[in-house]
Design goal:
Layout: E1 8-12, H1 17-31, E2 36-42, H2 55-73, E3 77-83, H3 92-105, E4 109-113, H4 124-137, H5 148-152, E5 162-166, E6 173-176, H6 181-190, H7 192-197, H8 204-222, E7 231-238
Parallel strand pairs: 1-2, 1-4, 2-3, 4-5
Antiparallel strand pairs: 5-7, 6-7
Helix pairs in contact: 1-2, 1-6, 2-6, 3-4, 6-8
């Protein structure tokens, strides 16, 4: 199997999560000519509080929204794993899918949602995916006896340099996204299903403003203690170079 090395791969629990968590960073990288692959792990069909919204229709809309948002931030490759929303499980099959992507695209950087944000109240897909991704990056991607079938396909061990976990409670790394924040906002607005879910008794315009204010307020907080006006915050994990 031919490999296709890229700079970074992002593993998003749901459509919208990558743009909300690190859309400015992805846009920054792609403007620098770095290739980013975005992987969307669940179909997002539970991502509405409105009982009238049908899951099949919601999943289709959110996939289209994700393609539009990824285009805005400059990610040319989007992979949909279509796991059940709020039903993602740590199975050998999902592990193999994620490992296959890592070994095929051989990224320097892997990104996903911090699985430990929300000690008591957190989305189960966030918790499970973040841990699976970390396990596949290390040690599994460096342990060929763990995946002999993939080795037979020509997918050899790969050493990821670092993992960035977005939306952390205790970040140790921040990236200046001041110059690409407008791109992040445009990408956020591609996810209209999520804007609609904010509406309640508001107008659509007010819901959009509220969503963007929430996003900007987060970027201001992330920049605290730095010289950056706007930032995205991460836990940065350096990966051991060997087993």
């Amino acid at each position: 199997m031919a490999t296709k090395p890229v700079y970074a791969v992002t593993f998003s629990p749901h459509p919208h999560d990558t743009e909300g968590g690190m859309g400015g960073t992805v846009a920054k990288w792609t403007r620098q000519g770095k290739e980013v692959v975005c992987v969307i792990c669940t179909n997002g069909d539970k991502g509405s509080g409105n009982p009238a919204v049908k899951p099949e229709a919601l999943a289709k809309r959110r996939e289209k929204e994700q393609l539009a948002a990824s285009k805005v931030v400059g990610a040319k490759k989007v992979i949909f794993l279509r796991q059940p929303d709020l039903g993602l499980q740590d199975t050998p099959q999902l592990q193999e899918e994620i490992l296959r992507i890592i070994l095929t695209y051989r990224p320097e950087v892997v990104c996903t949602r911090d699985p430990y944000n929300g000690r008591y109240v957190s989305n189960p897909d966030h918790r499970k995916l973040g841990r699976i991704v970390m396990d596949m990056v290390w040690p599994c991607a460096q342990a060929p006896n763990y995946y002999p079938a993939l080795v037979k396909e020509g997918l050899l061990p790969h050493k990821v340099k670092e993992v960035l976990l977005w939306s952390p409670e205790q970040p140790n790394y921040r990236i200046d996204v001041t110059d690409t924040f407008a791109i992040k906002e445009k990408a956020i607005l591609c996810h209209q299903t999520q804007i609609e879910d904010w509406m309640d008794d508001q107008s659509h315009e007010d819901a959009e403003k509220g969503h963007l204010k929430f996003t900007r307020d987060g970027a201001v907080r992330a920049a605290e203690g730095t010289e950056f006006p706007l930032a995205e915050a991460f836990v940065r994990v350096m990966i051991p170079p060997r087993l």
